[in-house]
Known about the structure:
The chain has helices at residues 7-12, 30-42, 48-53, 59-70, 72-86, 100-122, 131-144, 148-163, 168-186. It is mostly helical. The chain has a single domain, classed as Orthogonal Bundle (Globin-like). 33% of the residues are buried.
Amino acid sequence: MTLQLSEKAKELIPKARIVNLATWKNSHSPAEIQLIQAADNAGRYLTDEDLQQLNSSEPTSINTAKFLGDNAADIVSEAREQVLAAYPNISEPGGELYPPARAEACWRDFWHFLRCITYGIAGNAPEFTSEKGLHNMNLLYQELGVPLPAMVMGLQGIKAASLKRCDADDAAKLAPYFDHLIAKMSQFS
Length: 189
């Protein structure tokens, strides 16, 4: 079963891109920006080859971005389970994430949020988001009736699941990347 989207939602989806690479021009080469932009355009995590080409980044950041990408399925699964535990009827008939295609779209958003966070980590850019993209995502979520408290909880779950896989020093360095997106999405209405 697929979701039937309104024309407004279809119009907003391509505009709801949350990564802003324009601010990276002073700290990254055009080739590095193009590499991350290509991954974002394809909706994929950075590959090992991509990460090797990010010369201006710290090796720790590159390794962490790779590690999180490699563990994305488990991280997203943990966050999903946390949301389902807090909102046990959310994906049941009458719940905000019903039918199943609607729930799957939200879990896929968790995957994409982590993907975007890994771009910020790989590029050493904790404030990696686009205000315009976030505005359009907010409008899209309003149009679709996405349960924002559950989505923010999911982001918090992604953060917790990611950071618990890191040592304490790395976790402290990574927290701002997650906190940035959590704060931005917490402002959605």
